[in-house]
Specification:
The complex is a heterodimer of chains A (156) and B (963).
Chain A: H1 23-26, H2 36-43, E1 61-69, E2 74-79, H3 89-103, E3 109-114, H4 122-130, H5 132-140, H6 142-153
Parallel strand pairs in A: 2-3
Antiparallel strand pairs in A: 1-2
Chain B: H1 2-16, H2 20-35, H3 41-52, H4 57-72, H5 81-94, H6 102-112, H7 122-133, H8 141-157, H9 159-164, H10 167-177, H11 183-199, H12 206-214, H13 233-244, H14 251-262, H15 267-289, H16 293-304, H17 310-327, H18 331-349, H19 357-368, H20 372-392, H21 396-415, H22 431-438, H23 444-456, H24 463-479, H25 482-498, H26 500-510, H27 520-533, H28 540-552, H29 556-571, H30 579-585, H31 589-595, H32 603-619, H33 622-638, H34 644-652, H35 664-677, H36 681-697, H37 702-721, H38 725-745, H39 750-759, H40 767-778, H41 797-807, H42 814-830, H43 833-838, H44 840-852, H45 856-870, H46 875-879, H47 881-891, H48 897-910, H49 915-918, H50 922-932, H51 938-952
The chains are: A alpha+beta (156), B mainly alpha (963).
Keywords (chain A): Chromosome partition
GO biological process, one term (chain A): protein maturation
Domain MIP18 family-like (chain A): 38-114
């Protein structure tokens, strides 16, 4: 962890309201598909590694940047670092990946990427996040997994 | 005579000295002999002489003890100055004696310093020798306590004598207490020291005194769990603080100490330091604080800005307020301190979107709260920043935030009784106009905050502005937005309290309810708004009669709306204006309600009428109640119908016990008939409830038994001989209420009725209904058989029902088992948690059994209960984890989504149990929940995800700390 915060006073964004429960949601006979809001709810409360703020409050994740294909079992998440040189980008990407790995059924193929044009080393970070073996190796690192767990657990 | 008396005294003494209890008894006798003049003190001492001068140390100690104990039993004003002088001499001399004798000596000293005629020079003589010869800290705890009590007593009544000792006394105290470690003794010292420090000039011993106390700061102490009654850390911490700020002279030592501790990483040390600073600031004063501010400010800032730890942040903010208050005695110091705070926060205030905006805002609020001058200084910077952004920011959420900030500042101004534009630099501002314009927005949240803001400005709005505001409120009321409703009502009643005539004049006209063409929804909204101000004494008499007229009109929807409003009004409390009495006396409401044509009425309307009657009658005195009974009961009960029984219940339920109901037996018979045979289920229930109330309040005499038997015979008859299910259901409902009436009052028949009711669970056909009745028996929200309705309510009746049911565990098997367990879960939902915790042992196997049966209803209510119980973290759930967790996992696959959800919630709760305990289940849980997170229902998935992600953390790095 860097001792000096890179962005001490970032801008805040409004949080969405809790998802409303519809009659269909309570109907035993209706099958509910996964949708972008559901995926958004899984990751919006992950904490930023630097601030006591959630990824949603910092606008790092947005519902509009999430695509779900129920039929083909695909989930695509794009996230936007607060500043283009953010050294935390990989860590944030990893946290999102780990959370989705735990929270989504294994049938889904999950893809986590930086929103195009929002980070200096976009390709490098994307490559790391897409590389299954590198992700697995990173998760073997006790210190790293501790930080990720704390980010995920903070607003649980 | 004397010889024999004295010789027997010696004998008795030497016998008594062998046993402590005998000694106390003997000394008491001697003391009373001395007081009655039967024995002279001198003679007694002479008798004691052989002991007091014995070569054996133990005998000397015992002898001294006998003297001290005897003195203790003499009244405080018995001995004269000469005698006390003599005793002082003696004790002074004994101070030099061996270690073993000292406790008895100190006990004697403590006794004589309490005596009123102690010579002026005695305290000094005693203390000097004590300081010289008795080393306090090498004594045992009780002996040290004696020394402190001697100090305490002398500080209370011999201050002058102590002052004459000069620094010797102070030095003596300091060296006695230095190093004390016993929490009980410390509490005693902390209690006494502030006074001591304030009364005695410490001079060159100031620093020594401070150091002796400061070594305890911050208090680091864990009271052992076994001694529940003893001193806690917080007791010590709160008692220590006043010692540390007892003298302004401590400032030069204490403030650096505070700074040092605040800078540490220990949370408790920081909190204690903030507390000490907050409390001590006014003693130290501005001039002593000033040199340290440059160092103090950044350290406090660190805790409140951004302030992740809420308790710490609040403590920090309170401290800032207190500091500014104290610094305000000097204009220059206050000015420069606040300027520093503003400089450090200004950049964050320039953009409401910044994450540090709120922390900065709260910090400035804390400064502004201190006093008017500080507030004005903050406003000068903050208000222009807010208003500037308000005009440039276009997004609603930013304006909402800014409005919130302005509201908080205005509220602070209001508290300090001035308005923002009275500050010369801010004379140009016009927030009222800005706000009134903002009300034209469509954004509900902004409107909400703006209305609240205008309510804060209540006393400073011009009449033009108020008029405009009333219009806006009336428009909002007619619009009827649900989110705005409450705020509109609060705003309206805020102004109505100050300007009742304005509201009467304009608002009531604009919200007219006498026009029958008004749309029903608009009409309802107006009615609700009017009723919101009807509690105000000036307005109620004008509004209520109109509402009553609408309530009694034949327009169904409008009348129901009006009745709803009336019910809300009479159910509430009002300190200034008794709505219930007004409606009864001035609007004749009971008469109107009772005589209303109820034949074609909907149950909803009838229930409203009954509920209003209940609230009004409850507030009346016995005389008025009796009048109502005399007037209406015979009319209503003669032609008791399914509809008017509901109204009758409203009138009779809240009667005081000594109100007399004529022909009660007949009434009960009619009610019994309705309770069993009525076609409407609500009339059935109401009849049963009314029977229950009447039985509960009736005196237990012969008549009482006759009535009871009549009811019981009818119930038994139906249950045994009738085949009609509906009749049987009615009988069970009635039996439930009857049992309730008796058990709640603790009647002598209650056990029999309770046993009967529990036994009904065995009924194959009706047992299920009986089980549901147990909910009624112990319902928390039940409002019929209650103390408010003047019923006989015994304190532990729920406990009784609960224990009875638990004891009958073995009486139920096979098919009745499910009914029994169902009844039990209903009870569990309603009884207090403490009671459950007392009976957890026998309960747990029953819960496990319930989960294994096939009734979804039973499983669900068991899971709901289990969830609450799991929250307690009770040890029994540690032991039973291997039973519960696999069972819960298998329930995540049941048909009903509610069962799946409830089971998952329980699993989520289990994840907070100690890691060592649940780690063995982790792999299994994660594997099984992998299926649950792909549930077909989203609601189930969302809980499954919570549970699974939480279980992932069990035993993993970064696991949340267990509390």
């Amino acid at each position: 962890m860097a001792d000096q915060l890179e962005n001490t006073n970032p801008k805040l964004y409004k949080k969405v309201h809790e998802r409303e429960i519809t009659a269909e949601d309570e109907d035993e006979d209706v099958v509910d598909d996964f949708d972008s809001r559901e995926i958004f709810d899984l990751i919006r409360n992950i904490n930023d590694p630097e601030h006591p703020l959630t990824l949603e409050e910092l606008n790092v994740v947005e519902q509009s940047l999430i695509e779900v294909d129920n039929k083909h079992n695909k989930v695509h998440v794009k996230f936007t670092p607060t500043i283009p040189h953010c050294s935390m980008a990989t860590l944030i990407g990893l946290s999102i990946r780990v959370q989705l790995l735990r929270a989504l059924p294994s049938r889904f193929k999950v893809n986590v990427e930086i929103t195009p044009g929002t980070h200096a080393s976009e390709t490098a970070v994307n490559k790391q996040l897409a590389d299954k073996e590198r992700v697995a190796a990173a998760l073997e690192n006790n210190h790293l997994i501790e930080v990720i767990n704390q980010c995920i657990a903070a607003k649980m | 005579m004397e010889v024999s008396a004295s010789s027997s005294l010696t004998e008795k003494l030497s016998a008594a000295l062998k046993n402590d209890n005998d000694l106390i008894k003997e000394c008491q006798d001697i003391a009373s002999d001395i007081e009655y003049g039967k024995l002279k003190l001198v003679i007694f001492v002479e008798e004691l002489a052989p002991f007091l001068t014995d070569k054996n140390v133990t005998s000397r100690a015992q002898g001294t003890l006998a003297l001290s104990t005897t003195l203790k039993h003499l009244s405080k004003d018995f001995l004269n100055e000469n005698e006390l002088n003599f005793i002082t001499n003696f004790y002074c001399d004994r101070m030099k004696d061996q270690h073993e004798v000292i406790p008895s000596v100190l006990q004697g000293v403590l006794t004589i310093v309490q005596m009123s005629r102690l010579p002026q020079d005695s305290p000094a003589r005693l203390l000097n020798l004590m300081f010289q010869h008795v080393h306090c800290q090498s004594q045992l705890q009780p002996i040290r306590k004696l020394i402190y009590l001697i100090f305490q007593t002398l500080l209370q009544n011999r201050k002058d004598a102590l002052r004459s000792m000069g620094p010797d006394f102070i030095y003596g105290v300091i060296s006695s207490i230095d190093g004390e470690r016993d929490p009980r003794n410390l509490m005693l010292l902390f209690d006494m020291l502030p006074n001591f420090i304030q009364e005695f000039p410490l001079g060159h011993l100031t620093e020594e005194m401070f150091e002796v106390i400061a070594c305890y700061f911050p208090v680091d102490f864990n009271s052992s769990a076994s001694e529940a009654q003893t001193v806690t850390r917080d007791d010590l911490a709160y008692a220590l603080a006043p010692c540390l700020y007892a003298s302004p002279e401590f400032a030069e030592f204490c403030i650096p100490l505070i700074i040092e501790r605040l800078d540490s990483s220990l949370r408790l040390a920081k909190l204690d330091s903030l507390y000490l600073l907050r409390k001590g600031a006014s003693t130290y004063g501005a001039s002593r604080l000033q040199p340290h501010l440059a160092e103090l400010w950044p350290i406090i800032r660190k805790e409140v800005f951004p302030g992740g730890d809420i308790e710490m942040r609040n403590a920090g903010l309170e401290t800032i307020t207190e500091l500014v208050k104290v610094l305000s005695t000097d204009d220059v110091i206050r000015d420069s301190f606040i300027e520093k705070v503003i400089t450090d926060t200004k950049s964050s205030l320039c953009d409401v979107q910044l994450s540090l905006y709120w922390p900065a805002e709260k910090l400035l609020e804390a400064v502004a709260k201190a006093n008017k001058l500080a507030c004005a200084q903050v406003l000068k910077t903050f208000i222009p920043l807010c208003l500037g952004q308000y005009s440039t920011k276009t997004s609603y959420s930013d304006r909402v935030t800014l409005t919130e900030s302005l509201n908080s500042l205005m509220a602070i101004c209001e508290e300090q009784r001035f308005v923002i534009n009275s500050v010369p630099e801010l004379a140009w501002t016009d927030i009222p106009t800005l706000y009134l314009n903002a009300l034209n927005t469509d954004n509900i949240e902004l409107k909400l905050k703006t209305f609240s803001g205008l309510a804060i400005l209540k006393s400073s709005l011009s009449d033009v502005a108020r008029k405009l505001l009333y219009e806006k409120i009336c428009m909002a009321v007619d619009d009827g937005n649900n989110q705005l409703k409450n705020t509109c009502h609060i705003c309206l009643s805020t102004f109505a309290k100050i300007y009742p005539n304005e509201i009467l004049g304009t608002v009531i006209n604009q919200l007219a309810i006498n026009d029958s063409n008004t749309d029903n929804t608009v009409f309802t909204h107006r009615l609700q708004a009017l009723c919101a101000v009807a509690k105000i004494p000036e307005l109620g008499p004008q509004i209520l009669p109109n509402v009553v007229v609408v309530a009694m009109s034949n327009k169904l929807e409008k009348s129901i709306a009006a009745l709803c409003c009336l019910r809300k009004l009479v159910a509430g409390r009002s300190d200034t204006f008794s709505i219930q009495h007004f409606l009864y006396k001035n609007c004749n409401i009971v008469e109107l309600l009772v005589s209303a044509d109820t034949s074609g009425c909907s149950t909803q309307k009838l229930n409203l009428i009954a509920s209003i009657c209940r609230s009004i009658v409850r507030k009346l005195d016995v005389k008025d109640q009796q009048q109502i009974v005399n007037k209406y009961v015979s009319i209503l009960s003669e032609k008791l119908s399914e509809s008017n029984v509901i109204v009758l219940e409203g009138l009779l339920t809240p009667l005081q016990r000594n109100v007399d109901i004529a022909n009660k037996v007949n009434l009960l018979k009619n009610l019994l008939h309705l309770a069993i045979n009525s076609v409407s289920s609500s009339s059935k229930e109401v009849s049963s409830k009314l029977i229950s109330v009447l039985i509960n309040k009736q005196t237990e005499d012969k008549n009482f038994l006759i009535v009871l038997n009549m009811l019981r015979d009818r119930i038994k008859n139906i249950l045994e001989h009738d085949s009609n299910t509906e009749l049987k259901e009615s009988a069970i409902l009635l039996n439930t209420w009857l049992t309730k009436a008796l058990v709640v009052r603790g009647s002598q028949n209650s056990q029999e009725y309770l046993d009967f009711h529990i036994n009904l669970l065995k009924d194959m056909e009706m047992g299920h209904n009986v089980a549901n009745g147990f909910k009624t028996l112990s319902d928390r929200f039940e409002d019929t058989v209650t103390e408010e309705n003047f019923c006989n309510v015994k304190l532990f009746y729920k406990q009784r029902i609960f224990q009875n049911v638990i004891q009958k565990n073995n009486d139920f098997d096979a098919q009745s088992r499910e009914n029994y367990l169902m009844a039990l879960t209903h009870l569990i939902e309603e009884v207090p948690m403490e009671l459950l915790l007392m009976h957890l042992e026998p309960l747990i196997p029953l819960l496990i059994e319930s989960m294994a049966l096939d009734s979804s209803e039973l499983i669900l209510s068991t899971l709901v209960t289990l969830k609450v119980l799991l929250d307690t973290g009770h040890k029994i759930f540690h032991e039973q984890a291997q039973h519960f967790i696999p069972k819960l996992l298998s329930l995540t696959k049941r048909r009903e989504m509610k069962v799946r959800t409830a089971a998952l919630e329980c699993l989520l709760h289990y994840a907070n149990y100690p890691t060592v305990l649940i780690l063995p289940f982790k792999t299994d849980v994660l594997e099984r929940l992998a299926v649950a997170i792909d549930d077909r229902k989203r609601l189930v998935r969302s809980i499954a995800v919570k549970a699974r992600t939480r279980w992932y953390l069990v035993g993993a790095p970064g696991e949340p700390k267990q509390s």
